[in-house]
């Protein structure tokens, strides 16, 4: 359907149609590319553009695929035939930082990294810290309920969201939540939009919690004989009543690759753990961690300044880039009850052997959230189907161990079939009923998420 | 409609009809009594009883009023004509405590106090602590998203809920959430049921987070010249990057009454603040609080053991019982952005004068959550309408200051009209659409909450 000059004239931002739309708008960072190409791309310059775009899509019989930075790993922002891509990354203003109320009001295109930097000027910080913090938008982080390293103490993205402004399927604005720390007036619609992967509406503003910058931060790292020993040491830290702000685990294979990338002398070990503590008790907590680790390994390092922290964390940061050198990577994302971490990691190693695949596992031990990374060498045409079979077994294992098929990356298109396994038919029906209540004509991201 | 022996025979628990139902099932602790009396009372002995009761009500054209301990303050559990009261307080088993996963699975009739005591046996605790912890049920706490003293550090009840089992309007079971710390598979239905005041389904089991018992706890109390000085001192504590586990404020009038009840020498002061810190940094944080308070008042006390804590907290605990001696009390519950606490308290004093009412204000300063208590002397017949008018002005003030009409007690029947003011027509429509999606025939608590 050709757009009338009238409807184009409504927009302040740019509108591109058909083949003028750059190819990158078809996919996110999962690699999934849907069939067909989107019909229209609206790069919104303001909230009215968002409202017009939603109405335009409804009038044109198109669906709306909201897009932040396209860094998603589940194909949730992928857009094919029949879709209007609504790019909100240009709505990138921090509207307010209220220091004494410890909150900020932001547009969805702001990145968490920029918000955090700005908050620091006020002695505050924004705690959610996905590894993609600089290459994703806060709107996308909210729509996927992104996790990160600090969740074990500070919670996931949703735990920092107080309220939202959303453009609904009829183009109208909805305000959810509040500016107060607490409040119970009506159902918690804010949490419903958090993690909804663009299926319920377009987030055009968010009120988010900020927290004081901690007075002190200490980092502790240690090498262990094997994954069982490392997981047990992590459990012992929590039993010792320590609340680490970070508790990360690397298996033997990913540790080796990360050390190679960094060019550091490879310290052979069966597993690596890096923890961070912060706040007034940071040193006492770090001492307790070092002592706990020290009971099973002699190779414990403690860093009390930013430079040492940087060094001790380098291996964790290098893990993914190190693997990306070896081919395409499937970045998986399961969570299990914390007591099952070692079992999960061990089973993943077995799955890798069974499917002749290279799988490296690291992740957020404090939350039981593991990222098995399947490396798919580009020169082996059979590697991809083997990798997919291995991934399926990993999801099955997560469910068997009482866990979930996705700790933080979401369902998107890639895990739709598995969602039905995790939720069961009854819960899926209720999920769909809620979706229909908000988007009766299935305008937003049809075929994605639930 | 007379019940057939068949339907009665289905129940393991007791069923009472019409005039056999004790009068106390008509109301909760708000004092609100609806017109008419309930038709039936089912005291459920197991989950099947709950399912049968829901179906029985649907078949009989009755509504379902779920009841925990009836300690609510908004009339949400009040039951009048046409209602089947479904009392789930008898489902009071702790089903599991998983120490290394730091979680418990409980039935809804367990009290938070009992769960907390049991968790302590495992070195853990259940952090949500409404003042009614021993006289309410955890199901009711979840259904109202109850707050308490520790929210400022540990969050409200909902922040401790990982997953729920709910009986829906068709009598079927729905499982929401998970046992893992994180997870993003599908919409967050758990948060939708939290705070839903019995309008979406019957919570028959909950998986809740436990936390380690802190290694140390320190209490700091101080007397201030006036409410402005006290509120400023609370703000300064937070700016000093302290994360207190409790930060409570009493105004002059409630302080005086509490001291009278306790029979302690009344320390004249314009306001009283009591804070608690916990964890590895407890002492350092308490020192910082004492130092911060010490800049404006010489009357600061620090207590490092349980006995001292008990003594310093006694005044806060005595505030409500002290007021209940003077007549009926309307326990109000607003929240404002933290920076507006002093302004709110000051305006409440003005409202009291304007309406010739006695209003005492105390509450959770760390969350901006204030409880203005309106004492209605029983010997003054005009006092009640004046109190209601004053309450209305308090709600209006909360909204004017960017706050909410309820921080933790909920909407129930008493604040329905005010809910529309807070949410606006658009949000109310969306809320109702969600409610209809889950309960299309308005079986659960019709006319209550949203
Ligand atoms: C190197 C790398 C590291 C990563 N690390 C992490 C990590 O540590 N933790 C983690 O959780 N994820 C991680 N991710 C995944 C990804 O970055 C996150 O999911 C991120 O939140 C997506 O944000 P985005 O702006 O790129 O969203 P997009 O990919 O553009 O969109 C993601 C979903 O959100 C929806 N959406 C986007 N904006 C809005 C809006 N304003 N309103 C409504 N819906 C919207 C889209 O429709 C889509 O469904 C990583 C990705 C990469 C490439
Ligand atoms: C002295 C006193 C102090 C209080 N202090 C606090 C406080 O500090 N913080 C606070 O937040 N509140 C407080 N309250 C209010 C009240 O105790 C809480 O709202 C409590 O959570 C209610 O629990 P209950 O079991 O008594 O629920 P009820 O009063 O029986 O019911 C409350 C609501 O929850 C619903 N409900 C109950 N159980 C279920 C279930 N299993 N499934 C679905 N819906 C259900 C009911 O239908 C109703 O809508 C206080 C009350 C009193 C009397």
From TrEMBL, chains A, B:
Domain FAD-binding PCMH-type residue range list: 34-213
Cofactors, names only: FAD
Any Pfam family hit: FAD_binding_4
Protein name: FAD-linked oxidase C-terminal domain-containing protein
Aminoacyl-tRNA synthetase among keywords: no
Keyword terms of this UniProt record: FAD, Flavoprotein, Oxidoreductase
Domain of life: Bacteria
Keyword Electron transport: no
Lineage: Bacteria, Bacillati, Actinomycetota, Actinomycetes, Mycobacteriales
